[in-house]
Amino acid sequence: MQKLIRSALEARKNSYSPYSGYSVGAAILCKDGRIFTGCNIENASYGATMCAERTALFTAVAAGHRDFEAIAIVGGKENEADLPYPCGICRQVLSEFCGRDFKVIVAKSINAFEEHTLGSLLPYSFSL
Ligand code: THU
Fold first, then answer.
1. Which domain holds residue 92?
2. What CATH number does residue 58 fall under?
3. How far is the CA of 61 from the centre of ligand 1 (A)?
4. Is 30 domain-assigned?
5. Beta carbons within 8 Å of 89's beta carbon, 6+ residues apart
6. For residue 56, is it within any domain?
7. What does the pLDDT average to over 36-62?
8. pLDDT tens across 7-27, in order?
9. In the chain, N or C terminus with fewer CB closer than 10 Å?
10. CA 22 – ligand 1 centroid, Å
């Protein structure tokens, strides 16, 4: 878990967030041990912004990976203690590929984190 958080912290350095000042990094762990990372990438047309979690997930899927174990998310404004819980869209997108037991780690640092499951964060998820 600490390795995953470290990867997310590293990815956060590439965050492009001039509009919100809220930088996020994410690292998703595949069942085969591979890790893919992502950051949030904002746009002047705000709705075109991409979250860090989806950047990481989509990068992994585009590379041919679909079986996932866990994701670590780090971020937030510098002086705030709030943990970076994933937004509703990211929860839904994760639920396309990840089951209820998929671990979601939200962290401020290597030592300050919480571990949840996707099932607890998104009960009754939508699927077709
Ligand atoms: N953001 C993420 O990267 N992940 C989330 O789950 C919530 C929000 C980003 C999007 C935007 O760049 C900034 O945080 C503020 O909303």
1. 2-121
2. 3.40.140.10
3. 20
4. yes
5. 51, 54
6. yes
7. 98
8. 999 999 999 999 999 999 999
9. C
10. 7
Structure tokens that stand for 33 in this block: 């041990």
Residue nearest to atom 9 of ligand 1 (CA): 51
Q: Give the pTM.
A: 0.96
Structure tokens at 94: 């994760």
Tally of domains within the chain = 1
Pocket of ligand 1, candidates 51, 83, 85, 91: which has the most ligand atoms within 8 Å of its Cβ, to mutate?
Answer: 51
d(CA 19, CA 2): 30
Check residue 81 and give its pLDDT: 75
CB-defined site of ligand 1, < 6 Å: 17, 20, 22, 24, 40, 42, 49, 51-53, 86-87, 90
Mean pLDDT, the chain, integer: 96
Residue 126 resides in a domain: no
- In a domain, residue 100? The reply is yes
